[in-house]
């Protein structure tokens, strides 16, 4: 009797300590995101914390500066094209990798993950060499194509995981009833893959929108948003970048919320796999 | 002529052809924009049939020390991440629905936030007159500001912050796969909680631990932005060296040799961890 009581007491102390430790780590993770908010609303003319007063001047500065806006538009364009390309190429590729019975298909499946294993700096200078010959440096679609290479493995991992658990008998049933194959894929298969498709598209967009290393080499003088932020951090740390950061955090939160709603936890599978 | 077996073969072949057609555009892109450029770069390292560039990387003390420093930093990041991540993963695997949702949010929001945003925030937090130093001085805990930025400490903090989720999630996944009856049975038979943890939960979660370690180590080895900004030029990683060789000295062959070494190290670690993971899986079966 007494021993079991003692033991349950020990256990709850252990649980409490574990909880405190986890809470501290979560605080460490969230702290940098939280500190950006008050700074972005600062009324001071330089970086000061805590801010002496509040204003919207840094958001105003961001909106009024054409170079910030141009960089933002360029990044949105590149991320959109990257998403379209990565989905348009990656979803069909997943069908091939999951369903083909060709010899060597397992190896090919492994090889498509290579762009996430090879360090980005290596891909960056490799493409820098090729793109400067083709005079693609400074073109936003060049950056988008390069980003597609990085996004493709994520799309394949997510989509093929849910394709593997999809029951092909449904397609055969539809075919037996006379439906054509493109129609079957569109109406039977893809709707059931929706959670992983939503997550894959989100992942492609964000990965391109945030990517800096490739963009540093390939975007030249027409900067993407991350490149502009990088230069801004190096030159003058003013709170404009805090305002940009807040907008980015909000964008990601909304996208993350929507993806959780429609993607049903498929997001974490990319990393846990 | 048209036996059913023959027919089935035709259908199967047509199916394979259709599937292959689906893959062609993606494979072309990966070949043209990834495989070919990377192989072309790597081949530059032995241009002219000489290994001189590798010799330079292996013998010149400056470059050797950068390579060793990168390894050291990657190891430290991996170690710190492991120590922080395991308890968090354990907590998440035992949390209720609300705790799990909150924990995942705290883990995934920074994960999806731009590395630049976070690096900027660390600059604000860690500087001489940054938020942390100011607060600690106001509370009277320290007299002089702690050196947290433009040194190894700053780089470690920034990198751990970026890479922590890569460690937590694989460990969490492997903890979830453990049959909850096992530790329960051990405790039912009289084992104290710490022993059932050490003898059952910990060994069974090793595949996740090794996967997380591999991921974090490999990613830190190739890290670029965070050390460049938080190290303030005092911490040089291989990737920064490669960038410098290309941008400033236009020394492509040497950059290619360094890239080859970085890639080989990366692949070796993956192979090693793959073997360890398989070993751990076999041992627990």
From TrEMBL, chain A:
Instruction: Name the membrane topology term.
Output: Multi-pass membrane protein
* Keyword Cell membrane recorded: yes
Q: Where are its TM segments located?
A: 76-98, 110-131, 143-163, 197-220, 240-263
- Which keywords are on file for this protein? Cell inner membrane, Cell membrane, Membrane, Transmembrane, Transmembrane helix, Transport
Q: GO terms for biological process?
A: transmembrane transport
Its Gene Ontology cellular component terms are:
plasma membrane
Q: Which Pfam families match?
A: BPD_transp_1 (PF00528)
Would you say which domain of life the source belongs to? Bacteria
Q: Which residues form the ABC transmembrane type-1 domain?
A: 72-262
**Family the entry assigns:** Belongs to the binding-protein-dependent transport system permease family.
Q: What is this protein called?
A: ABC transporter permease
| Species of provenance | Teichococcus oryzae
Which lineage is the organism of this entry classified under, starting from the top rank? Bacteria, Pseudomonadati, Pseudomonadota, Alphaproteobacteria, Acetobacterales
């Amino acid at each position: 009797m007494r021993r079991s009581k003692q033991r349950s007491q020990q256990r709850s102390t252990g649980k409490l300590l574990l909880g405190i430790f986890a809470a501290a780590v979560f605080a460490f993770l969230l702290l940098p995101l939280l500190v950006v908010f008050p700074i972005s609303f600062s009324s001071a003319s330089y970086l000061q914390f805590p801010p002496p007063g509040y204003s919207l001047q840094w958001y105003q500065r961001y909106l009024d500066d054409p170079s910030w806006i141009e960089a933002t538009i360029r990044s949105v364009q590149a991320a959109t094209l990257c998403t379209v390309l990565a989905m348009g190429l990656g979803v069909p590729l997943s069908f091939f990798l999951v369903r083909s019975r060709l010899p060597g298909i397992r190896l090919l499946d492994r090889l498509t993950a290579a762009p996430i294993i090879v360090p980005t700096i290596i891909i960056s200078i490799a493409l820098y060499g090729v793109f400067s010959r083709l005079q693609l440096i400074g073109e936003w679609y060049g950056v988008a194509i390069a980003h597609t290479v990085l996004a493709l493995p994520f799309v394949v991992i997510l989509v093929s995981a849910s394709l593997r658990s999809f029951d092909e008998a449904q397609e055969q049933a539809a075919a037996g009833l006379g439906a054509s194959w493109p129609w079957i894929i569109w109406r039977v298969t893809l709707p059931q893959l929706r959670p992983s498709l939503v997550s894959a598209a989100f992942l492609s967009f964000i990965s391109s929108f945030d990517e800096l290393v490739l963009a540093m080499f390939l975007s030249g003088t027409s900067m993407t948003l991350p490149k502009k932020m990088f230069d801004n951090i190096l030159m003058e740390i003013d709170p404009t970048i805090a305002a940009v950061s807040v907008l980015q955090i909000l964008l990601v939160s909304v996208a993350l919320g929507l993806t959780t709603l429609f993607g049903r936890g498929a997001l974490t599978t990319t990393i846990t796999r | 002529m048209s036996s059913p077996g023959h027919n089935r073969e035709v259908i199967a072949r047509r199916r394979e052809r259709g599937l292959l057609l689906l893959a062609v555009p993606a494979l072309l892109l990966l070949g043209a924009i990834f495989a070919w450029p990377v192989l072309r770069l790597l081949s530059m390292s032995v241009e002219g049939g000489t290994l001189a560039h590798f010799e330079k990387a292996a013998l010149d003390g400056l470059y050797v020390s950068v390579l060793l420093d990168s390894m050291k930093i990657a190891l430290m990041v991996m170690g710190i991440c492991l120590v922080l991540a395991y308890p968090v993963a354990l907590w998440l695997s035992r949390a209720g629905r609300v705790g799990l949702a909150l924990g995942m949010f705290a883990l995934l929001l920074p994960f999806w936030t731009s590395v630049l945003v976070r690096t900027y925030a660390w600059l604000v937090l860690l500087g001489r007159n940054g938020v942390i130093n100011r607060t600690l001085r106001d509370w009277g805990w320290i007299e002089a500001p702690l050196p947290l930025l433009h040194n190894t400490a700053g780089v470690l903090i920034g990198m751990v912050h970026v890479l922590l989720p890569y460690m937590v999630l694989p460990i969490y996944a492997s903890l979830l796969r453990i049959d909850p009856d096992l530790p329960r049975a051990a405790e039912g038979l009289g084992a104290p909680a710490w022993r059932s943890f050490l003898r059952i939960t910990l060994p069974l979660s090793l595949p996740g631990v090794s996967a997380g370690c591999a991921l974090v180590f490999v990613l830190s080895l190739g890290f670029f932005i965070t050390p460049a900004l938080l190290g303030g030029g005092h911490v040089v990683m291989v990737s920064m060296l490669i960038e410098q060789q290309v941008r400033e000295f236009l020394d492509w062959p040497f950059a290619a040799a360094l890239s080859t070494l970085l890639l080989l190290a990366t692949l070796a670690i993956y192979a090693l961890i793959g073997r360890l993971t398989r070993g751990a899986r076999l041992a627990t079966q």
